[in-house]
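Archive transcription. Copying these from loose printouts into the bound notebook so they stop getting lost. Printout 1 of 2:
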Amino acid sequence: MCPMKAIDIKEGKPVRDIKKCVFCLACINVCPTEALQVGKKTIGNPRYIHKDYRRVIQK
């Protein structure tokens, strides 16, 4: 899910490692339950997955 490997699942919830995160927002856009947000700015907003996303995370 995260190209920087900055997301871990702990106790069933996603937890972001601030030291690894570059705020690319890939995690927010691919989360199927919209559990990840950036404050209140992303709540309820549409998600976007770039056409090259799968190629980026496979590197």
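Printout 2 of 2:
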Amino acid sequence: MLHIAGNYVAPTRYQSAPQNLMLSWFAWPQVLFTAQVPLLVGLCSGALLVSLVRRWEYWPFLLTLGLFGLCLLGLSVSMFPHVVPNAVTIHEAAAPHASLAFMLVGASVLIPIILAYTGYSYWVFRGKTGHEGYH
């Protein structure tokens, strides 16, 4: 079934998307969890403005990373449980459990090795470069 509005024709299954979006953010038990995202965005934005005015060096970068992460979190809250809107859910897109278990074991072995090697290489080459950097 199609809904016609002016020159725009849209399938009716997409007409309920704003209603679903409002329910995903403002339904009663969920609002206790989802309200944290806009509150953290406000706090992070205020702290970013303060850090820019005071000309701090590292905080603007870290707060911008935080804002980016909060935007991704807000997008995931809006789309949950769908990966592709109104088409594919997280459970439909997930790999089989055997593949996920294999990847978990591989990642839990390799990530500590990579971190240890990176730490070791930083330890070996500490103080070997000049203060002017690489450029």
